[in-house]
Amino acid sequence: MATKTQGGLKWELIFSLLFILLNSFSSISVQSSPQSYEPTPENLKARQWFQDAKFGLFVHWGIYSILGDGEWVMNTQGIPVKTYEKLASFFYPVYYNPAEWVSLAKKAGMKYIVITSRHHDGFSMFDTKYSDYNVVKATPYGRDVLKMLAEECRKQGIKLGLYYSLLDWHHPDYFPRGATGHRTGRPDHGNWENYIQFMKNQLRELLTNYGQILCIWLDGYWDRREANWH
């Protein structure tokens, strides 16, 4: 009996050591991953500026504004893609005055403005060559509202940041579906890699065609936490 007990203790000790060793490797791997990223001096300077700025204006604006029910209305009301697309034909912000927006923000003491370039509904509020579903091509207004705001921010000396949604209730290649947008009537197929490339192309446009951009706020990864967002 004593021999069996010693043998059992021996194997328990071996398994315990293996468990500790494997967990040590796992811990080292997890801990070393973030250390591989080294922020540039410019990046650190931008972070500090944002921290010190403290006060800014965040604008949610899109074709969902027509319904007056918030940017999630397509999902919360289960509006099919083809029905929702028709909202673009009513988007004509005749009183849009970016100069006034920027002036009011500055008078209030704000240091920056962030605006939605594309929200979860997939509608681009800028002139993009990678989708006709945008403010220039799909609305009677036909003007790049983001370009107008960017130029005014530059003119009046206030920084501009952009919100960009990773998830998309409109794009057919956003597949498999995530936690939201299941009642929009999209086809049950798609090409994830095509969607990733689509986003990269749009982000390149935003970061090259609109002057100096303070930040890009990427929202929506939580819709598909397991996905490879590259």
Give the helices and strands, then pairings.
Elements: H1 2-35, H2 41-53, E1 56-59, H3 73-76, H4 81-85, H5 98-107, E2 112-118, H6 145-156, E3 159-165, H7 192-208, E4 216-219
Helix pairs in contact: 5-6
Helix content: 40-55%
- For the largest sheet, list the strands in their spatial order: 1-2-3-4
Chain-averaged pLDDT: 88
Please tell me what the overall shape is.
globular
CATH class of the largest domain: Alpha Beta
Secondary-structure arrangement, i.e. CATH architecture of the largest domain: Alpha-Beta Barrel
Q: What is the rounded Rg?
A: 24 Å
Given helix and strand content, the structural type is: alpha/beta
Helix count? Answer: 7
SSE arrangement, N to C: HHEHHHEHEHE
Q: For the terminal residues, how far apart are their CA atoms?
A: 57 Å
**CATH topology category name of the largest domain:** TIM Barrel
Full CATH superfamily name of the largest domain: Glycosidases
What composes the largest sheet? Answer: 4 strands, parallel
Q: Give the beta-strand count.
A: 4
